Amino acid sequence: MSNPKTALVIGTGLGGLATGLRLASKGYAVEFVEKYHSPGGRLNLLEKDGFSFDMGPSFFSMSYEFKEFFDYCGVKNPLELKELNPLYAVYFGDRKNPFLIYKDLQKLAKEFDGIEPDLASKVEKYLATAGKLFHDTEDIVIRKNFKSKLDYLLQLTRVPVKHGPKMFRSMWSELENNFDSQEVKVIFSLVSFFLGSTPFQTPAVYSLLNYTELKHDGYWNVEGGMYKITEALVTLLKERGAVFHYNTEISSLESGNGRVTAAISKDGRRFTADKIICNGDAAAFRGKILNREKFNRVKLDKMEWTLAPFTIYLGVNKKLEKLYHHNYFLGNNFKEYADSIFRTSVSPKKPYYYVNVRSRSNVNSAPEGCDSLFILCPVPDLRFKADWSDAEELADTIVDDMSSRIGYDIRKNTLTRTILTPKDWEEKFNLYQGSGLGLAHGLNQIGGFRPSNKDEEFNNLYYVGASTVPGTGLPIVIISSKLTTERILSDDGSL
Ligand SMILES: Cc1cc2nc3c(=O)[nH]c(=O)nc-3n(C[C@H](O)[C@H](O)[C@H](O)COP(=O)(O)OP(=O)(O)OC[C@H]3O[C@@H](n4cnc5c(N)ncnc54)[C@H](O)[C@@H]3O)c2cc1C
């Protein structure tokens, strides 16, 4: 039998692991090098004082991408997925009770009784157009490799022209055309922050995300916590002979004849393979490791990046019944807040934040009678706020705000607390300037305009993950792993 082809994956984030498993299922021998001490990248686990927390992602949409992935690899889906119902709860500054957001439109309409008349029929109409846009573009823009920018632009001509105006108006004006109340508009516009912008700048095409959350597939969690995804992939990879090296950061590449011949770690070890797949940030890697002019520090800093995470992991001595799996805490100054949040150097005095209660759906995450809370406050990245010496103060502000809104003194009843600032996120996982979701998704940074998953110079170097195509978020990164695998197999002549 001839020797198998070999692949070296730099990084064990979801993108790296999923590409590794796809390649292993096609007969590749796969090896991983990872900077951090454990696998998962942003999809990681924090265990402390009897509590466990998912470090980053706490839910996902488009669950069918995981099914497609396991089918592709020829394995039974090892994950038990749980749909969130309600999808999430939204607390506004001056309201005692949260709005519960349901996929069931009659139930949703009841939440907005007296606030947004005829909500069910308005949402039905809004989602019908958003749904058409989603299905008309997913195979053209999301699930496709592009040979060049021109190829991408040519593909775009296949999108029905009726969707064109959505490229030129903002998501907020699209919502204003469909809804009357500030509350509904704010809630439906929250998805724009996942893309790295505000609803006032995000093009209306992204209303398709409302379709994916509210109609198409909803939001999902994994039984046992999100880290089960990482654990399952590592187990499947090890069963297929994959080798993992942790605490191993690649700091340079050797090359010759248009190929990468070795990846060199900070401590001087050489790793070789037929194919090299970079799961680190596709833009920053080209700049920092490959010294490409187009991605030098100045140019990277001029790109649009998603907000940085300020995260708090709390073990609390009580079950906080007022919290759902997934909660947003918002103020009453949405536009002003959205406009300032990306570029300020001061921590917000009245922050907007998101809270996930892992122990709500996964009881083993906290000792009996306790809750494990993950709080995410999106903040400016390190370009705008480099000094995080006020981290404890910001955490106290957030915890006290939540305490007053749910009527329980959380600070006094905290059993364990860990804070990660954008600086920590940068240091742990090489997230550029601490940006949480990678490159933003404005029209000039998607499709053929996003850093490609195939290197421009080395014909055996590929990229996978949030900052290459199609973009960020767990299901989208699963699609990224498919696109990268297809590139590799096509270059091999085996596709
Ligand atoms: C706080 C937070 C909350 C989020 N919540 C959600 C959510 O609820 N739902 C959702 O769908 N998405 C969410 N996301 C986004 C999601 O986590 C990412 O889109 C996804 O995990 C990215 O996976 P990846 O494989 O591209 O990269 P990563 O997870 O960043 O993995 C890349 C890996 O490469 C390693 N690496 C980098 N450079 C090198 C090097 N030179 N040498 C060796 N190793 C290297 C890193 O250490 C890392 O382990 C969240 C992100 C954050 C930060």
List the helices and strands and how they pair.
Layout: E1 6-10, H1 14-25, E2 29-33, E3 45-48, E4 51-54, H2 64-73, E5 81-83, E6 88-91, E7 99-101, H3 105-111, H4 119-142, H5 149-156, H6 165-168, H7 171-178, H8 182-189, H9 191-195, H10 208-216, E8 220-222, H11 227-239, E9 243-245, E10 250-256, E11 259-265, E12 270-271, E13 275-278, H12 282-288, H13 297-302, E14 308-316, E15 326-329, H14 334-341, E16 353-357, H15 358-361, E17 371-379, H16 391-406, E18 414-420, H17 422-429, E19 461-463, H18 474-492
The structure holds flavin-adenine dinucleotide.
Flavin-adenine dinucleotide (FAD) is lined by residues 10-16, 33-36, 41-43, 56-60, 249-250, 279-280, 309, 311, 376, 429-430, 436-437, 465-466, 472-474, 477.
Strand order of the largest sheet: 7-6-15-16-17-14-18
Task: Give a list of the ligands.
Answer: flavin-adenine dinucleotide
The chain-level mean pLDDT equals: 95
The CATH class of the domain at 6-37 and 246-303 and 441-492 is identified as Alpha Beta
Q: Can you tell me the overall shape? A: globular
Strand content: 15-25%
CATH-level-4 superfamily name of the domain at 6-37 and 246-303 and 441-492 = FAD/NAD(P)-binding domain
**Unreliable segments of 5+ consecutive residues:** none
Rg, Cα atoms, Å:
22 Å
Spatial separation of the terminal alpha carbons: 21 Å
Q: Provide the CATH topology of the domain at 6-37 and 246-303 and 441-492.
A: FAD/NAD(P)-binding domain
Query: What is the CATH-assigned architecture of the domain at 6-37 and 246-303 and 441-492?
Result: 3-Layer(bba) Sandwich
The count of DSSP E runs of length 2 or more, i.e. the number of strands, is 19
Largest sheet: 7 strands, mixed
Count of helix runs: 18
Strand pairing plus helix content: what structural class? alpha/beta
Helix content: 25-40%
